[in-house]
Amino acid sequence: PEVKVHRPVSSCLVDTDQVTSAAIADAFCKTGDQNQFAKGGDKLEEYMTFFLPSHLIRSRCFAAAGELLINAEFITRRVKCFGAAEGSRKHVADLLELRREAAKESTTSSKPKSPQSRK
């Protein structure tokens, strides 16, 4: 249910149909000039740099979230929007959320299914 909301939001924010690690990072990099010159683009830039990793994590696109979080342009734009302290705080929080959710996903997918759930 939650995945069905966050995946399209992620896709719409960076204007791409593919929510893959390479596609999201590349598409995000292309949005910089658009946001800079569009009316209200500064608010969109703030929203994207603050929430895009969370949308990706919640849609279970862990590789895309990880790729975005190590992207130099993403980090630069996030710090530019929120300053060094707040940008760094949010970045660390996103990295921890990614680690926690990916670990949770791997433990649930590696558990053997009970006989009833296999039916």
UniProtKB/TrEMBL annotation:
This is Uncharacterized protein.
